[in-house]
Amino acid sequence: MKLDGCNALITGASAGIGTEFARQLARRARSLILVARREERLAELRDELQQQHPKINVRIQKADLADPVQLKELIAWLGREKVEVDLLVNNAGLGDLGPFATSDPSRNEQMMLVNVVALTLLTRHLLPQMIGQRRGGILNVSSSAGFLPIPGDAVYAATKAYVTSFSEALRAELRGTGLSVCALCPGPVRTEFQEVASRPGRRVKPGPGPEFLHVAVQQVVRDALNGLEADRPVVIPGSAMKVAMLLARLMPMPVLRFIARLLPSRTRAE
Fold it and tell me: What is the side-by-side order of every strand in the sheet holding 87-90?
């Protein structure tokens, strides 16, 4: 898919990777629809983009994708307004860091609704339109955590495994239609995601990971858009992360289980 002149919808656009997607796509897209919970941030981003790129049409839509009612309202709005979208960036995501046994059940539900349900339903709604036009791209923001079971990150890693698997299957189904499907699987990225995913009152706050694995948000988005245009199935930004994920995926499960037992106690139920 060529991104020039595209009409893109970006979820989770009010911060982090989603905001960077909006900024980089604004240079090339014809229109953007920015979706997130925080309307004030969306309005600020819209004003910034329209000031820098006067020809682009930017619309914002407030929606909490963890709320099934608001998700249905968003999908209904897209249908009612006959919004044209040929690039869907499923970026919105939630995490939770800590033992599953002490997790908040409502947070687990929210993670599954945002990371899995919203992504699936938005894709299902927009896909027939793209197939009819024989033009379109779906960029699903997964995570390198989805390649492996991650103690202390159990539900999040499992939802991202879904995203990657779903993307691969959808890509195979759409072969020959002119559509591109890509799963972005970044490693550590410095955004507010880690802060939001941290549980209140925890003695040890999780960091963004080892410095050598860290990739700047600008590079993550640039690699993702380049990968989509090149029709790559999976994008793992950063040379170190590529090597690390290759080695991890080649390891037998018994070895991974042994490594998991050596992880710090903060990832275990207390």
Answer: 57-62, 31-36, 7-11, 87-90, 136-141, 179-184, 234-235
